Amino acid sequence: MAGDTPLMAQYKEIKKQNQDSILFFRLGDFYEMFFEDAVTASKELGLTLTSRNKEKDIDVPLAGIPYHSSSAYIGKLVSKGYKVAICEQVEDPKMAKGIVKREVVRVITPGTIIDTEYLDEKSNNYLMGIVLKKDIIGISYIDITTGEFITTEKKRTEDYVYRILGEINKISPRELIIDENSYVLLEQELKQFAQSNRINVNAGLKVRKSDEYLKKYFNVISLDSFNLNGKDGAIESAAMILDYVLELQKGNEIPVDKLIYSGSENVMELNLTTQRNLDIVSSNKENGVLGTLQWVLDSCKSSMGSRLLKHFLKNPITSKELILKRQENIGLFYDNVLLREELRGKLKDIYDIERIIGKLILGNENGRDLVALKTSILNGLEIYKLLKGNPIFEISIDKLVEVYNLIEVAIKDDAPFSVREGGIIRDGYNNELDELQNISKNGKDTILEIENRERERTGIKGLKIKYNKVFGYFIEITKANIHLVPEDYIRKQTLANAERYIVDDLKVYEEKVLNAKDKIENLEYHLFKELSLTVKEFKSELHDLAYKLAYLDVISNFAHISTKNGYIKPEILETGELEIIGGRHPIVEQLVGRENFVKNSVVLNEEKNLIILTGPNMSGKSTYMKQIALILIMAHMGCYVPAEYARIGIVDKIFTRIGASDDLVTGQSTFMLEMSEVANIVNSSTKNSFIILDEIGRGTSTFDGISIATAITEYIHDNIEAKTIFATHYHELTQLESKLRKATNFRIEVKEDEKEITFLREIVKGGADKSYGIEVARLAGLPKEILDRAKEMLKVLEERKMIIEKKVKKEQLILFGSFEENIQEQKISEPKEEIKELENEEKIAIRLLKEVELDKMTPLDAFLKLNELKRILN
Q1: Are residues 91 and 200 in the same domain?
Q2: Whether residue 40 is found in the same domain as residue 186
């Protein structure tokens, strides 16, 4: 760095320690960026790229932004995945000897952004951490804008990557930290998913003695108070991301004062595929939340309520007691419309208390935040009166009134956004501030008062108080009156015909009036921060108020939505029954109108727990199956459901396999992807699960498809006994009803006449006996010429099938090769018995077939073995 100016030498030293960040280097009223940082920032933020004095005859790129508007620029950079290091002047330039001391005071990443203005108010901004151990996966996530800190752990099974993807999708973090040893294993597996979901993924360092680290931070003797005893995966992941956050905050306090262990025993499992197939909280479409269950159910009045609702949607509960408690709370507002509407009117004026508390602790609060907090407390107290002490809303009245009064007496209702420019503190709050304000506003009057007083005291009628930039304020007296000057006057300057003096009062006033503005701003900032520290001491009571207001918002919202959409309270059972009469798809009915939606029912129990559903594509099979799953999720949230009547047993997991598409990223074909997902379902589901399978086996040949679909259906029926709906276009599977004791056939009702076929979208008992593919093609808009030709081919195939089936006298599905316009009946010769030596390939296939242990094979294993034998024979 020879030849560098002291400033550039300082910059380079600080940048060297923050290579992975864009360095915002404070210079007076600006943040400056140099070299590559300047080039990147100018491109991403649309800044003008200039240069400062040359270094080795090369211009040094330079870009800058005003510090007071930096949050918008930081927000943009972080949203694009960059880290931003904030380097501040940490000493007063007036007091500095030489170069002003500077330090990085905070590093901001996508998961640790603190300026809530640039965050989605209805979503948490999570940083997530993952630690892989031999048998356990530790998962933790933290939102430093609200103080939420949750940890859990899962068993490390063979499909652990798929389970991790499901957890990531459920939590929706902005940033993901993986312990450095596992990063190599997971980086490629998660890369595509992370990119498509705009998640930054980085390696993190495990903390040595993680349990001691957490105990020290939370100042507890044991982690038992957090229910973490023996949960090493949860402990290590929590310590890793807490250490990561604290390292970036450079000693700044964060609003995290407790750690919650979230066990999976009371939460329904919704894997990645299920979350996406059911459109629970997000959509892959450009319209985002539109067309999701969240879109249907979220009419919350506060951002805190919307965030809590989202959490409920992703984590349906499996505790009957908790579900019934929520139902009871919803019922309070469902039955009392006036109470509900008055409550929702007050909730509309509740601000984001959680994030205001976070800003207080992080130190980036302003006067408007405290006014918003005061308003929210006032509305909270009015809600308390409205509910007349109902246990649903028990809050710390005395403490909250104290906080309200603290803010009310100190902060102006029209406080400005900036905390450094005054105008925040009320008149009468502080005597010194009032005096400074008076001096600043009434300076001329004070000068006149001093001038008149000194004239009377000295008897010098020509005494004048004057001002100049060199001497400031002074009293000027002509030479003729010098003999009347009091002894306490101090000579300041001698002129040809006058003398200039100062007195103590004038000196004190001069100091006040000249520095009044700076003093007012500094004193107001000091008083504001002093008040903030006092309010921060009530964070427990404020957090409690925030959660209870959010819960009230969600519950009253459920009552509102249930009334508006015609939902009913389902009966919750411990047994495995499922009975939904007149059920409706909550999303589709909002898109097409309830009057246009065809209701359908379902009954699954110990006697009949498997439905084989047949019918053409586009006839409503998927809608029917999804609506049952969504009704189950809503019921397990405690919400009312779209049906005429419902009895719902507790479900521990919901699995779906719907649709077909190749996974081009991993190179998996439609069929391989389908079989992988089915393998996950049959290996993970229990008797208390609910399974949707749609068109399993269509990714391969017809014979293979029917064989695999049959084997899977039988396996689920005989071994798992989960409540299952199997939709298929293989009509041959309807024969399983007579073979499987708990299986029953249902079909989509179709109305036929001479001109056209109409799908009635009504589910009725019995199996479909034919396909309506050509009719679906017509609905999809294929040209008439294609449809007419298809009908000709269909007629040929059906005639040939009838001829051959009649001759062979067997009911079997026959595949045909080339089409012939004229089918002629041919005599079928009797098969002649031929004895020949087996080929080597056939001998190998037979030997392998004898070694197969069918009772130990999964459907996927069976398929792979069949495929292997087929390759040998061919």
Answers
A1: no
A2: no
- Taking the C-alpha atoms of residue 107 and residue 363, their distance in angstroms, rounded to an integer, is 15
Model pTM above 0.85: no
Q: Which of 264, 289, 306 is the last residue of a domain?
A: 264
Bigger pLDDT: 93 vs 728 = 728
Residue 498: inside a domain, yes or no? no
Q: Which long-range contacts (CB under 8 A, 24 or more apart) does 659-668 make?
A: 659/277, 659/622, 659/694, 660/695, 660/698, 660/699, 665/192, 666/192
- Per-residue pLDDT averaged across 412-436, rounded? 91
- Out of 661-665, 759-763, 793-797, give the one with best mean pLDDT: 759-763
Question: What rounded mean pLDDT belongs to the chain?
Answer: 85
Spatial distance between the Cα atoms of 182 and 245, rounded to a whole number of angstroms = 20
> Which residues does 291 contact at the CB level (< 8 Å), separation at least 6?
279, 283, 285, 587, 591
pLDDT at residue number 835: 44
DSSP structure class, residue 630: H
Would the pLDDT of 278 be above 50? Answer: yes
Tell me which range, 172-186, 629-643, 706-720, is most confidently predicted by mean pLDDT: 629-643
3-class DSSP string for 496-507: CCEEEEECHHHH
- Residue 299 parent element (H or E): none
Q: What is the pLDDT of residues 165-181, one digit of tens each?
A: 889 989 999 999 999 99
DSSP state letters, 459-477: --TT-EEEEETTTEEEEEE
Verify that 224 and 195 share a domain, yes or no. Answer: yes
State how far the alpha carbon of 822 is from the alpha carbons of 235, 788, 825, in Å.
75, 17, 10
Bridging pattern class, strands 578-583 and 600-604: antiparallel
Identify the domain containing residue 43 by its residue range: 6-108
CB count within 10 Å of CB 860 equals 20
Is residue 676 domain-shared with residue 611, that is, in the same domain? yes
Token pair 């069929």: residue: 671
Cα torsion angle, 484, 487, 489, 491, sign: positive
- Reading the block at residue 147, the tokens are 């103080």
If asked whether residues 62 and 144 sit together in one domain, one would say: no
Per residue in 462-478, pLDDT (tens digit) is 899 988 877 788 999 99
Written as six digits, the tokens of 774 are 């050509």
Q: In the predicted model, what is the mean pLDDT of residues 716-744?
A: 89
Q: What is the 3-state secondary structure (H, E, C) of 311-377?
A: HHHHCCECCHHHHHHHHHHHHHHHCCHHHHHHHHHHHCCCCCHHHHHHHHHHCCCCHHHHHHHHHHH
Task: Please give the sequence-ordered ranges of beta strands (E in DSSP) within 671-809, or none if there are none.
Answer: 690-694, 723-728, 743-752, 757-765
Secondary structure letter of residue 602 according to DSSP = E
Q: Can you give the CATH number for the domain in which 718 is found?
A: 3.40.50.300
Question: 692 has which bridge partners?
Answer: 656, 725
Domain of 225, CATH number, reads 3.30.420.110
CA triple 675-681-687, angle to 5 deg = 145
